[in-house]
Amino acid sequence: MIELEGVPELIxxxxxxxxxxxxxxxxAASTAVAHLDREWKGEVFAALDAExxxxxxxxxxTLWLDDGVRKITWPTTRLSVVRVGGDKPRDLVLxxxxxxxxxxxxxxxxILGFAHELGVEMVVVLxxxxxxxxxxxxxxxxxxxxxxxxxxxxxxxxTRYEGPTGIVGILQEACTHAGVPAVSxxxxxxxxxxxPPNPKATLALLNRLEDLIGLRIPLGELPEDARAWQVGVDxxxxxxxxVAEYVQTLEEARDTAELPEASGEAIAREFExxxxxxxxxxxxxxxxxxxxxxxxxxxxxxxxxxxxxPKPVRPETGSGxxxxxxxxxxxxxxxxxxxxxxDGRDGDGPxxxxxxxxxx
Length: 360
Hints:
The protein is built from nine helices and twelve strands. The chain is an alpha/beta fold. The two termini are 31 Å apart.
């Protein structure tokens, strides 16, 4: 039985989830939820029992010192609540963890139990896949759902994917069968530079999430990190003539596919985003406060810092992770969000013309 003592009644709550692992190329999705948790100072109110869902030989616990006291961080999934202030405050339930090793149906039922008890109105699951997309272009972001009505009202793609899937696909289907509106947002990460972090893809996911749920998300240092990431990959790609030639081929294919779609619709979306954010002064970010959840202690993710992008993988070697279009249970990257523009904000772009990429 789920008991939520210390969590107040929530306002129009939306659950936003991401899981490390197969559905998280470049750690873009899990980093996006971590960013929301950090910027809005979320407090963890629940954690799933690691014994039930994880193989500790696959995802090992870690030891760390806290004022000389040895402690253990167990691989699990944690839930936190943040209240976003403003004219129309609303709450977000953030779910961040690792793709479970076992008992996926029980795992999803437990997440849905929290969603039911908290009155969640919609579940948004973030994911990232590897794709044939150049790092120099806007990051393609697709939004898919199994609900035809939701697809129609929110301008989403209705998924038609058949094949192997990850926990993102399973959770979305579990929500659909439980009558909970659910959407998956996917960012396409260049397969030749798939190593984390990828702040440009993270930023693109947050841009698309902002449009979907109608909230202004504080970006912090993400725009600067995204620009630095692209400059670093530009430099590394230029050092290898084969990679540079391959990137140029991807650019030409992308530009050719996008030309017919360069319509006023994408411009209108960007203008709407600009209008929503124009009241934010220099140096200011829209914020909110975390809903208190008592004095319960939890183990925070202490990882941080920036990393120089690793050298791009040569096209013929690949990265060892299934690219889009393979049996990865992931959708086509059919919408674009530029995480590397001068102001860090870019509208959803035209659709990808690829016909062989599966949907989740």
